[in-house]
């Protein structure tokens, strides 16, 4: 199948990337032998804007997308965070290519009102929607012509290429990376953990005066971490997690997450560590700091499960099968989170 992947590919960052959901889905599609072409709306808008006049760049990016579809003749568009692409452009594409289907994915949290607005904007013009949150909240985005589904954050063996469960020497006992604003509850939460566990080496980036990590610096921090916190700004949206979870578990880092996430449906206590409050989290961090055999066993099993069940190849195939309403080729452990009108 010819697939056009329209997203913010961040070419202008010149390799200083951290979150790479687009790339992992791209790898997954290629591994399924699909012919995939990239289209980066924001980068093309920059390149096409004379004298950096943004409205002109935006208009030309939409024109270039129409031109690309005429040249490439895709059978599916996988639309990501391509905010500059207008709905009328997508409707024009569908009129000109009536057999083409459009899948839209959004990995931002629904507790952010802007995310809800962005998804609602696409509801009427796409054939399927994939969101990294589950549950009945997805039904709000259903329309007669679309399907709405949860999708897990994918991992990829070429991206999550470490196995920290087999290591014994680290720079950091505990890692947390997350850009925290002053009102972010994680700022105080992580500070409290550091104070209570002052003998442990905490790598904290993106808050407490420490800049966030990007590119190779982030990869190196992951490779040098024994355990890590998968903390969301708000815990309670069913099955929501940032892409952080794939980067931690996929690299064999012992991962701690709140029970309110609902991820117990995917992982047992032999694959990840769950906590319900900060006191329990402190106790668990201390316990695994002092029991490296248990840390290795759980982190290793978690890595194996994440790499197999949530690979970019499996997630990409799920997106295709759901978008084209095909019988599922395998049992996806999240396929009960598919909603149709």
Layout of helices and strands:
Elements: E1 2-7, H1 21-31, E2 35-40, H2 41-48, H3 54-72, E3 76-79, H4 87-96, E4 101-106, H5 113-122, E5 128-131, E6 147-150, E7 172-177, H6 185-196, E8 202-205, H7 215-223, E9 225-229, H8 244-249, E10 254-258, E11 273-275, H9 278-289, H10 292-309, H11 312-323, E12 338-340
Parallel strand pairs: 1-2, 1-3, 3-4, 4-5, 5-6, 7-8, 7-9, 9-10, 10-11
Antiparallel strand pairs: 6-12
Helix pairs in contact: 1-11, 2-3, 3-4
Task: Give your account of this protein's structure.
37% of the residues lie in helices and 16% in strands. It contains 11 helices and 12 strands. The strands form 2 sheets. Strands 2-1-3-4-5-6-12 form a 7-stranded mixed sheet, sandwiched between helices. A 5-stranded parallel sheet has the order 8-7-9-10-11, sandwiched between helices. The radius of gyration is 21 Å and the shape is globular. The mean pLDDT is 95.
**What form results from the Cα inertia axes?**
globular
Largest sheet report: 7 strands, mixed
CATH architecture label name of the largest domain: 3-Layer(aba) Sandwich
Mean pLDDT value: 95
- The rounded Rg comes to 21 Å
Short description:
The protein has helices spanning 21-31, 41-48, 54-72, 87-96, 113-122, 185-196, 215-223, 244-249, 278-289, 292-309, 312-323, and strands spanning 2-7, 35-40, 76-79, 101-106, 128-131, 147-150, 172-177, 202-205, 225-229, 254-258, 273-275, 338-340.
């Amino acid at each position: 199948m010819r697939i056009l992947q329209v997203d913010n590919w961040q070419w202008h960052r010149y390799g200083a990337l951290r979150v790479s959901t687009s790339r992992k889905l791209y790898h997954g599609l290629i591994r399924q032998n699909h012919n995939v072409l990239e289209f980066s709306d924001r980068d093309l808008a920059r390149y096409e804007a004379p004298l950096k006049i943004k409205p002109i760049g935006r208009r030309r990016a939409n024109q270039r997308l129409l031109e690309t579809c005429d040249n490439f003749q895709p059978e599916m568009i996988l639309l990501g965070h391509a905010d500059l692409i207008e709905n009328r452009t997508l409707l024009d594409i569908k009129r000109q290519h009536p057999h083409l289907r459009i899948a839209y994915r959004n990995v931002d949290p629904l507790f952010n009102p802007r995310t809800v607005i962005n998804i609602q904007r696409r509801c009427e013009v796409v054939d399927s929607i994939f969101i990294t949150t589950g549950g009945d909240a997805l039904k709000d985005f259903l329309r007669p012509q679309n399907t709405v589904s949860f999708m897990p954050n994918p991992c990829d063996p070429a991206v999550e290429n470490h196995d920290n469960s087999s290591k014994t020497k680290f720079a950091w006992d505990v890692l947390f990376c997350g850009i925290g604003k002053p009102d972010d509850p994680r700022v105080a939460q992580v500070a409290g953990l550091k104070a209570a566990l002052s003998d442990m080496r905490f790598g904290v980036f993106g808050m407490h005066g420490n800049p966030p990590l990007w590119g190779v610096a982030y990869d190196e921090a992951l490779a040098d971490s024994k355990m890590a916190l998968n903390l969301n700004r708000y815990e309670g949206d069913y099955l929501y997690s940032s892409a952080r979870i794939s980067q931690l578990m996929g690299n064999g880092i012992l991962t701690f997450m709140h029970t309110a996430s609902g991820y117990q449906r995917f992982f047992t206590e032999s694959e990840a560590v769950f906590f319900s409050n900060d006191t329990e989290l402190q106790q668990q961090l201390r316990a695994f700091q002092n029991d490296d055999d248990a840390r290795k066993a759980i982190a290793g099993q978690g890595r194996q499960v994440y790499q197999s069940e949530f690979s970019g190849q499996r997630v990409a195939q799920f997106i295709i099968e759901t978008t084209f309403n095909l019988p599922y080729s395998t049992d996806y452990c999240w396929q009960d989170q598919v909603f149709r009108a």
